[in-house]
Structure formats: C-alpha cells, structure tokens
Design brief:
Blueprint lengths: L1 H6 L4 H10 L23 H15 L9 E10 L2 E11 L4 E12 L6 H18 L6 E2 L2 E2 L18 E5 L17 H13 L14 E2 L1
Parallel strand pairs: 3-6, 3-7
Antiparallel strand pairs: 1-2, 2-3, 4-5
Length: 213
C-alpha cells in the first residue's frame, strides 16, 4: 500500500483513509465465529479509519521531525483487531537503523486489564524489531545459530518508547496478543524508505545491508 501511495504521490495516511472510505462489498463471515473470538464480521472500515486518524494525531505525522528522523505508517487487521502503527526512524551513513518511537492505536473492543493489554502491544513491538535483524541459517543439516550470542534478541538499548492508545468502543472484545506485531515491520520499513529511498521487501533487513542500532 505504501508503494501505491508513493506511486500516486499521495500522503500515505490520506491514501489509506481514502481507500477505506470507498464503498466496500459485504464481507463473508469469518471462520470460527464465536462472539469475541477470532471469527466475526471482518474488517470494519470505520474502525480502520479511526485508528489511522488517531495514530496520525498522536504521532505528529506530517509535522516537522528532528533532523534525520522519518515516519512510516502501516495498518493491519488481525483476529478482529484493528491496528494502526507509526514508526519514527533514523538511518545513519552506515545504514544502521534506530527506531526512536512507535505509536500504536488499536480498536480491540472493551478492555478489562489495561496494563496487560499495553504490555502485550509493547512486547509485540520489541519482538518485531528483533525480527528485522534475526535469521536462522542451516549448515550441514544443522542450525548455525546455536545460542543468543549469534541469534541476538533485542535488548533494552534498541527498545523504543511505545505510545499505546486503545480506542474506546463497544464492539466485542478481541485479540491483542498478536495483532500489534504484523504492522510494526512494514511501518519501520516504510520509514526506512522515507529516510533512504531503499524499498525493503525481504526480511531480515540485514540482507539489504541495514542493521538495527
């Protein structure tokens, strides 16, 4: 979607909102459709637009950033959860990527344990940042990376502040343990594109010469 908005010379947030504002065909019922479970009526464009607009407002999208900082935006629908994320990223001359901040806005229905839901989202972001640089290789039929010295999970220095905001809605409660993970990588990679002009389509980003600071 970011490639489409770039080709159209459109602001990515406005482009996504326009797409979701178009008349949608009726969605087929999802599998396993117990209320509040993973099944349900499908993506709700109004909920998607609300998440994107709120993320834009909270992150300062479109407003001046510190020198060398760039924003990237992505939206994802998963387990009936609507999630918009904006990454603030910089890339130095050695292609080292620093994620300075992540803004996450989600509509997952009523929340009983707010701190637990926030922690789930924060964990998704840290996990996704790790995914950007992690890879398992096979040599002579064995996994080359044998421990965490060669398969380096993200540590505190690379874990950015994560602004988590949940929209207050009355839709059936749904998943939050996984939905915040998928949009993080494209949001960060879209920010890398904004910073460098390099479009990353394959993970880990180390294959393109980048690394996570």
């Amino acid at each position: 979607m970011n490639e489409l908005s770039t080709a159209a010379k459109r602001d990515h947030a406005e482009f996504l909102i326009d797409v979701f504002s178009q008349k949608q065909a009726a969605a087929a019922p999802a599998a396993g459709g117990a209320p509040g479970g993973f099944g349900g009526p499908g993506l709700n464009p109004e909920r998607a637009i609300a998440c994107i607009k709120t993320a834009v407002e909270r992150s300062g999208w479109g407003k001046p950033l510190p020198a060398g900082h760039h924003h990237g935006l992505a939206f994802h629908f998963s387990h009936q959860g609507h999630i918009a994320e904006i990454a603030e990223v910089s890339v130095d001359a050695k292609k080292k990527v620093t994620v300075h901040k992540m803004t996450v806005v989600a509509d997952i229905g009523p929340i009983v344990n707010l701190s637990g839901a926030e922690n789930q989202v924060q964990g998704c972001i840290v996990d996704a940042i790790g995914t950007l640089g992690l890879e398992v290789n096979i040599e002579n039929g064995r996994i080359k990376e044998q421990n965490f010295d060669t398969y380096r999970l993200p540590r505190m220095p690379v874990s950015p502040p994560v602004d988590v905001h949940f929209l207050e809605t009355n839709y059936p409660p749904t998943g939050v343990g996984e939905p915040a993970f998928p949009p993080a990588c494209p949001a960060i990679c879209n920010a890398i594109y904004a910073a460098t002009g390099t479009r990353i389509r394959t993970l880990p980003i180390t294959r393109e010469g980048f690394s996570i600071a």
